[in-house]
Amino acid sequence: MGRYLLRRLLQLIPVFIGTTFFIFVLVWAVPGDPFAGKCGDRRCPDAYVDFMTDKYKLDQNIFVQYGSYMKNLLQGDFGETFGGRSINEIVVNAYPNTLKLALVALAVEALIGLTAGVLTGLKRNGFLDNLVLVSTLFLIALPTFVTGFVLQWLLGVKWGIAPVTVSSDVSFTELLVPGFVLGSTSMAYIARLARTSIAENRRGDYVRTAIAKGLPMRRVVGVHLLRNSMIPVITFLGTDLGALMGGSVVTEGIFNINGIGREVFRAIITKEGATVVSIVVILVLVYLLMNLLIDLLYAALDPRIRYE
Amino acid sequence: MRVSKRASAVALGAAVALVAAGCGSGDSGGDSPAKTDGAIVIDGSQPEVGLVPANTTETGGGAIIDYLWTGLVEYPNEQGANPKLAVAESIDTKDSKVYTIKIKKGTKFHDGTEVKAESFVKAWNWSAYSPNGAQNSSFFSDIQGFEDVQSVDPDDDGPKKAPEPKAKEMSGLKVVDDHTFEVTLGSPFSIFPTKLGYSAFYPMPDAFFTQGADAFGKKPIGNGPWKFVSWQDNVEIKLTRNDDYTAGDKGKIKDVTVKLYQDAGAAYNDLQAGNLDFQQQVPTSALAGAKYKTDLSDRYIDVPNAATALIAFPFYDKRFQNADLRRAVSLAVDRQSISDKIFSGSRKPADSWANPLTPGAKSGNCTSCSYNPEEAKALLAKAGGFQGEMVFYYNADASHKEWMEAVAQSVKNTLGIEARAEGVPTFAVFRQQINAKQMKGPYRAAWSQDYPDVENWIGPLYVTGGSSNDGSYSNPEVDRLYKEATSAPTVDAAHAKFAEAVTFVDKDTPSIPIYFYGQQSGFSDKIKKPELNVKGEIDLESVELK
Amino acid sequence: MSDPTVGSMATTPPAEQPTVAGGTAPPDSGLPANAKRDQPRGLLGDAWMDLRRKPLFWISASIILLFLVMAAFPSLFTSVDPTQGDLARSRVEPSGDAWFGYDVQGRDVYARVIYGARASILVAVLATLGTVLIGGAIGILSGFWGGWVDALLSRVADVFFGLPFVLGAIVILTTFNKPGSGNSYVKIVSLVLFSLIILGWPVSMRIMRSSVLATKQADYIMAARALGAGSGRIIMKHLLPNTLAPLLVYSTILVGSFIGAEATLSFLGVGLQSPVVSWGVMISETRDWVRVSPFLLFFPATFLVIAVLAFVMLGEAVREALDPKLR
Fold it and tell me: Which A residues 110-139 touch B at CB under 8 Å?
């Protein structure tokens, strides 16, 4: 186990280098001159374009650019945006907010999705089963801007029971509504995955055995059934954390959360290589660690899964 | 809707006169005495770059800079009014070429140092000097010696550095004494004093030159009625009243928080919930069906804006070189329906070449701006029809899809040719294609004046080689009349010549004006109805708590 | 964790039939449905027998068929041109003339929903298939072989995972489809598919890998291995039917997500462009009008939900038929 862990952690290094370079190349390949659109419907002064091109070394070839980025990175410096802001500061200020939002979303979708999945898995094809299916599918069909707007308006403006926008402290309670909005598109997956798994395992011998032993139903479901049905759900949740963090731009906008979504979107559109790479690389590290955690969880949930 | 160029939102002449006429000023005489202190929260957006006037071309930072600084001249809130002197005591010229500018004594920067003639001259020289790379440097190109402080990168985008320019300072700027300086222009330009209200011409304190632009931009020091307090990225910028301000009215409230929003919808809901006291532009979703009027009851302001949306033709494409065809397209666009249906009346159909709120502009002088299907079809036939598909291009990263599709549809239905609208992913790609003259069809453009004069609607757009004449339109008559106008001895004489030039533009139809922008602001019930300045920003000095 | 029941009984031993039958049956898919009942059938033949009896299967299959016909021959359902607009009837509510009303540009919403089926179904179904096939195959390999194969494939997946969708899509689509280059419909659709698949496969891969990890230690796999079955045979005959369920469930819902993703691409200006209609684009276009004309959102969203519902139901029926554990 220890060696496995060590090996997985060592794998971070090549992935880190590969990803940074890969993303650097992609941003470089985004079309458009980053400074062509800075002056509105007017050509920017040559002096300005030359100055910026020079300052951010955009006239060097891509390997030189990548080299100098990595050199600074090794000294703990992510560089700065075209607007002159330190990317370290953006990362430090914005990342925790996005991470909190994604965790709340994950918790909300796991809670609602799992509850719905367990209930419907135990009693399939009933009214509840169909209701859950149709309503979660509607949440997929409705774009985030609609769910976000409706909830913000109803809960925040009309009834005044939730904050309209999130304050600069970004507390967990404030994030409940945004978290629901962000997590709503994944609820259908969790509910269905859990339902299927529960329904399958329900027929397992060990459930019959447990029931025959006279264990209370609650314990059978809570301990035996749930635990054995968790693998697909956990896998999906693990992949979803990253997706939620990377895809939070609309939700962050609706609730005015100072997160990485907007920074990364803005940086992609304006070809700000250093910003995109810095933010995305951390995102990739989150995936790697999350997937490592998930792989370890497999072994905990199902002892037959072993890593040598 | 985000206008990515500061100048595009420089809505000079926003009709505060209309506002006053519309609601009357009776409610200002309320029974409770006006409070002299208090705090408000207004909306804003994260400035793209540090708060340095020479580098700021977008609205987010532009608004803050306007609160922090006062220029030589100021544009009054009333639309079409002539600029008035602010920090300047007098601006004199005999030949529209050499201007003597005297400034008021005793006005101070927020750090306590005095605003002197040198504060202007040094700031302008810094902005124009090409190695400093200021985004607004081209505003100084009128001044004599501007070319000498420019240098060109020898290999364009290559790694070689540009050589040092010939001179460090423009020869046309001369400090006479502490409170007087002289500006010599390259050639006579009668509109120059009007230009001086633009933010690129603001003075800078010594601290700017010692700290450098990057450090200064994070903690700016201005000379205006509001002082900078703090800036938390993407969260808020705090300002406070400058009690030592002498160049104009002081504020009636003490503290202003500019809350930085990513999305107008979020700000709008905050406004309705009472967390925000002023929103400059309500979101498109509230404009739809004019919902904001019922949402906010009487707490809104609806005024026109001195900005116009146009569709420009690429003259480098042979298919668009026929004036009859261009007129046919223009006459085929049903502007009234677009205004009513797409914008729910928040934008008005365009009927003139320069926005009518601009001093010197004439309303209704665009003869092809009406919807006339018969004439359009006749002109198309005369032009020999149109081969292939006419694609209208827009940038997909702002909300232009709906009206551009409506334009294409109107052209298609009226002329019976194949027409559709297509989005280009980002504004950067869009502008790059325009700059490289690669547009394959008519494309959207927006123009709003940098300073309130009709000149700004002709020189950059329709004169050969104009800074925004991207479609390469050229007519020697227009060029000749423009030149005569800018060297005219008086502003009125200049305006007459500009009007003459416009008649030639109208015949050629080099672009098609579609709609005039409007501004719909909302405010909370905590404050009295505020005034807007010429750029559409809230006039903070006018704000009073109820 | 020490519960003794878990280890040995986590997965129900499958019904023996497929294992045994798989060993002796002739090629299984071509079996006539009326083959003699006692003749051992292959996995697929078995599934088909099972499916035929399920009303759920027939209902969902006919809805999907209806949508496919709609996608292939939209003119059978409406004679109205979906691109013909007129601002005079902008946002006119549903009536006898136009069942679903008119959109902001004054185009017939019913006609647009019908014509929108083509792009939506085509893109979503093909992208789902691609994602599932590629992700599933890589997931099986990586879960089954483990070791360095797993490490390599998993880390590659992590990198693709980390790519922001917007970045990947903008780069792929603008590189191969320069704005204004007037590429053909087929080429743009394939590029959209390519982007969705290359950015979407890692999730399927993780899900498949997890089921394989949980299943490959089961007794019957061990038994098959002990009997000398090759890896290919174990994967195809034993692992696949027992691990398919989660991926199948995931993929049917994924159809719905892809319909939305296609719209995102169009809105970024890199995907399908007008006059091509799709449900996702119709839904996004309602953005500013939801408050005043909610019917604009209602119709395309309902079609989307019905279509996805049909796929989910079909997936459910197929899964139950295929899954040995539910026999």
Answer: none
